[in-house]
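User: Fold both of these, please.

Assistant: Here is the first one.
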Amino acid sequence: MRHPVRRNPHLVLRFIERETSPVARPGPLVVLWRWRYEAMLLVGGPVVVVVAVRTAGPAVTIVTGSLVCLLVLLWPQARREVAGRFWCVVTPHRVRKACAEALIVNRRGKLPVILRTRPEPFGERLWVWCRAGTSPGDLERARDMIAAACWLARGVRITRDPHRTSLVIVDVLRRAGRPVPQEPAETGERTLTRFRP
């Protein structure tokens, strides 16, 4: 006798959609580039600890590490800097995930490229390059989905670069009460929208 199993049609559709997704799997170099900070921390952290223990000894290493952690916890400026860098690592992953879920891809399944992320007083600013087959309008239509994907974000503002049609500036607004730059004029404010590597 068959056991009655209730099938959720929504889950079945999600499974079919995931298996037939038009989003292309990234190659190994792209994966390494996207996870470069985490890889450096995973490899570099133990190397720094081992070198410090061998050169200064375990007691000095533990005391120095504890003092650095205490300094970061107690000094507000250092705490804000560490938090800003943390969000600059997390936010590009979340924006890529939102683009994949919103199907902002070209016909080959390639996502837009996040060129740079920088901490700002209001949150983070990302420079996103739209590949051929995607447009800044795609990101503008998915603004709410991007905001929902970026944890703890109050909102997202999408700004087209007036000098490069394929470049988009994504401002992730996290901190209330912080100054948010005004929208650029139609002629374009070079100071706001210029990509500085």
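And the second sequence with its predicted structure:
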Amino acid sequence: MKPLTIYLILFFFTRPAEGQTNTDYGSGPQYLNHIYYYRGDSLVELEQTSGKMVSKTKAMGYGGSESGLLVQGGQSTVRIKGGDSVRFAMKTGMSMMMDPSMMIHLYKFSPKKGDREAILSSEGGMYNRDHSTTNAAEIPFNVQKGTDDYIMTPASRLAPGEYGFMNLMMVNGAGSRSMSYTVFVFGVD
């Protein structure tokens, strides 16, 4: 066999090994703007779904109104143990001057007819304005700059339930009547 033929055969047999993906993400997040959970020394990609913005009024607005984020399905496939120290990682393509907490928000979801909903704001209505809230379902988190990514840690321990990170920069259907956002969801058991 000629040396060129041997090199071509070796080239084609060694190429598939390069295309295999590494699932432990030991060097940090693999994709930009995706959120990962630290499980031990490896990263687990959170379930990515779409969250639809919904609003409803009671008694034509006199009884108040609510607006929130609705995610389909009762619970996430990504589960985290309640006693674990919870840390998340994200690599952004944005300027290092921007804090990720300006574009990423963490919400606690409540069950709603087989789906999950996070109430972002509520107005008390004409005769009950004292009952207005903003971002009642939002969970504060701390951000630390890593080597090539950001580490996000909830400011307090997460209670059992369903949660999700909403990325304000990942809008689906902007300008249409059904605006939705990319949400990275997980559950705490």
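Helices lie at 3-19.
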